[in-house]
Amino acid sequence: MSNQPQKNRLLACLPEAEQERLSPHLELVQMHLGQVVYESGVTLEHAYFPIDCIVSLLYVMSDGDSSETAMVGNEGMVGVSLFMGGEATSGRAVVQSDGQAFRLKAIVLKQEFKRSDALQHLLLRYTQALLTQITQTPNCVSKVMHRIPGTDRSISRKW
Q1: Does a structural domain hold residue 155?
Q2: How many structural domains compose the chain?
Q3: Strand-pair partners of 104
Q4: What is the CATH number of the domain that holds 91?
Q5: What is the maximum alpha-carbon separation in the chain?
Q6: How far apart (Å, rounded) are the C-alpha atoms in residues 97 and 52?
Q7: Confidence at residue 3, expressed as pLDDT on a 0 to 100 scale
Q8: CA 29/CA 37 separation, integer angstroms
Q9: CB burial class (10 A; 0-12, 13-18, 19+) of residue 62?
């Protein structure tokens, strides 16, 4: 296995046969600090499985402001909307820490998601964990803001 999917902890959870089937489709890419992986409203062409980089997921508001909703490292993937029925996303993904990731074409991910019960189950469980992280983020920010003297306590609600 030249691409060693097990370098990403999410892919490492797949049975070996699934890893071997995905391996030829995984392209090792360099991710650079500040690199925009995808923009809001753009059709996603790839999913990314970080190896040693970190990617921030941002919600983009109508006025252009954004706020971080989650971070993805080697425990996950970037591009969950691809298998959740969407072609585009309402958010932005930006690299926060240099490193490498596996890139997988969207069409391959969709085909494998339909074909493989193991991959489907794993990605849906990951999405559940990601949603939990997204819902916890505002609560954590709110708690921190309440501990800083002189801070406008309503700021955490003005995402």
Answers
A1: no
A2: 1
A3: 47
A4: 2.60.120.10
A5: 57
A6: 8
A7: 72
A8: 12
A9: exposed
Q: Measured between alpha carbons, how far is 105 from 46 in angstroms, rounded to an integer?
A: 4
The answer to whether 79 and 47 are in contact (CB under 8 A) is yes
3-class SS of residue 148: coil
Domain assignment present for residue 157? The answer is no
Which residues, other chains included, contact 46 with Cβ-Cβ below 8 Å and sequence gap of 6+? 79, 103, 104, 105, 106
- The residue that leads in pLDDT, 144 or 158, is 144
Residue 87 located in a structural domain: yes
CA 127/CA 2 separation, integer angstroms: 27
Buried b / exposed e along 80-110 (16+ C-beta atoms within 10 A)? bbbbeeeeebebbbbbbeebbbbbbebebbe
> Residue 2: what pLDDT?
57
Note the pLDDT tens digit of each residue in 72-111. Answer: 999 999 999 999 887 778 789 999 999 999 999 999 999 9
The yes-or-no verdict on residue 112 having pLDDT over 60 is: yes
Domain membership flag for residue 85: yes
Sheet containing 36-38: which strands, arranged edge to edge? 36-38, 91-97, 54-60, 66-72
